[in-house]
């Protein structure tokens, strides 16, 4: 047998109950590794992934469900694509918005891991949350952030976290910021925005995939400096977190 056939046979020999148990227990890292194994098994692994995603449909999505959705979205299988159209036609996340902002395209970009375009669109969505004037100028004042809907910030953050294996998002960045005592000079190199004392140059020196440091995206520092990102991290949306 070929290596591929041998690998699929190995996966097929796994006890389905053990696979289900693995997907529902253990650490996130272990689950993500198992999902990748099932993805590489192709048609042998897809049924278990579809079953898992369907069972979790009513729960708030996590990076684990996000990874399963991404794997299935990339599958060259009419059965899998029909499954997604039937049960997840709008995507994995139902993006809530008090401001009536449409996040469907942002979800598509993040699900495809097109992080560069998703980052650009995230700034646009923040401008939409601010005002028509912000949309026209294409950036926001730090003073506008306090008016942002908590629901909308949670939606943007959830989309980034779910489709990045939990590596990206405002809440991720904020946790790191708190972890270094709100010290910006310690935060910048930690998230890859500053290297060897020099600012990372946009866009070519940023990392637009999951090899990036935790908290690398979205690029809030591109919005108008420290006052903007500090206002984002200080928003009441995160009041349920330690501060």
UniProtKB/TrEMBL annotation:
It comes from the Bacteria. Residues 97-236 form the GUN4-like domain. One of its GO terms (molecular function) is tetrapyrrole binding. Pfam families: GUN4, GUN4_N. Residues 14-88 form the GUN4 N-terminal ARM-like repeat domain. GO terms for cellular component: outer membrane-bounded periplasmic space. InterPro entries: ARM-type_fold, GUN4-like, GUN4-like_sf, GUN4_N. PANTHER family: TETRAPYRROLE-BINDING PROTEIN, CHLOROPLASTIC. This is Ycf53 protein. It comes from Lyngbya aestuarii BL J. The gene is ycf53.
């Amino acid at each position: 047998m070929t290596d591929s056939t041998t690998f699929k046979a190995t996966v097929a020999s796994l006890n389905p109950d053990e696979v289900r148990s693995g997907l529902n227990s253990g650490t996130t890292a272990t689950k993500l590794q198992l999902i990748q194994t099932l993805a590489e098994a192709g048609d042998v692994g897809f049924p278990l992934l579809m079953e898992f995603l369907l069972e979790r449909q009513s729960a708030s999505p996590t990076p684990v469900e996000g990874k399963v959705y991404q794997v299935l979205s990339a599958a060259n299988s009419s059965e899998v694509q029909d499954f997604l159209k039937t049960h997840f036609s709008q995507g994995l996340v139902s993006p809530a918005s008090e401001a009536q902002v449409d996040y469907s395209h942002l979800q598509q970009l993040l699900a495809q891991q097109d992080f560069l375009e998703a980052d650009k669109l995230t700034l646009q969505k923040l401008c939409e949350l601010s005002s028509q004037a912000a949309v026209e100028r294409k950036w926001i004042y730090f003073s506008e952030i306090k008016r942002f809907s908590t629901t909308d910030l949670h939606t943007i953050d959830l989309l980034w976290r779910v489709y990045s294996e939990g590596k990206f998002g405002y809440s991720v960045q904020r946790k790191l910021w708190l972890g270094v005592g709100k010290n910006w000079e310690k935060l910048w190199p930690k998230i890859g925005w500053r290297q060897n004392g020099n600012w990372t140059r946009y866009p070519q020196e940023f990392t637009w995939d999951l090899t990036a440091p935790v908290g690398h995206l979205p690029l809030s520092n591109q919005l108008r400096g420290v006052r903007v990102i500090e206002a984002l991290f200080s928003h009441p949306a995160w009041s349920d977190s330690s501060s």
